[in-house]
Fold this protein.
Amino acid sequence: NAYDFHWDQYLKATGSLSAPSDYFRQSKIPPANDFKVGMKLEARDPRNVTSVCIATVIGITGARLRLRLDGSDNRNDFWRLVDSCDIQPVGTCEKEGDLLQPPLGFQMNASSWPMFLLRTLSGSEMAPAAFFKKEPPKPPLNNFKVGMKLEAVDKKNPFLICPATIGGVRGDEVHITFDGWSGAFDYWCKYDSRDLFPVGWCCLTGDILQPLGNGGKIINSYMFLCFIEIRSNCFCGVMVNVGNIGILFPASIAGRTTRNTAKTQ
Ligand code: MLY
């Protein structure tokens, strides 16, 4: 399909650079994901980071796990890399002399927690310690530059990893913008966030890289169909890149009449 997204074509068509992989807090070779749906582990409660809870693997996506805290509801699932320091084998807490906590919003009476825990763990499959990988170290400096391309988690839809661009750099923070989407999904985060990945990450891990937002589609390696919103009118055209210079042709000339607006929801 001519509209499939390919980084190499897209980088060429937009005349942009990808951020080098050593700028990221990710291992060069993505960690293997050996987990299976249903396995139990210990996870830091994302809504209450001082407590460690029991979680179940609900899904597998690339090098990430979709997790649900036992005793919690199904509306607060979260995603973690298999080399995240937020997850550990069942028994780690006890070994360190800590107690497993009920998740925030535990659905039962707090007094029933010890019994609940016992029932949850008995007969369940624990993820083996070897499945948990060591978190890579922080790169020493924030080297990101405005305009560099990457793959980033959409924090409003954290199951999605999308083509993104560095929109700003401020100290140890970077501004993440999503290609083809209006600013509604942008966010600032630390340069060493585990939600940022080098170009090609999804391809290596088998995670699904989202297509560009409505704003852009590749036609071929040199042409980049783009939609620009001028005030409330939507202008549709074809961007042809010659070196670093982009020339925008109106859709009528380009032979396309599609009207489009950037999605925001
Ligand atoms: N609910 C939205 C999802 C938007 C995702 C935007 N990300 C990829 C930046 C929709 O269905 O359009």
Remarks:
- Residues 228 and 235 are 5 Å apart (CA to CA).
- The helical segments are 7-14, 92-95, 113-121, 201-205, 251-254.
- Residues 229-233, 253-265 have pLDDT under 50 and may be disordered.
- The longest helix spans residues 113-121.
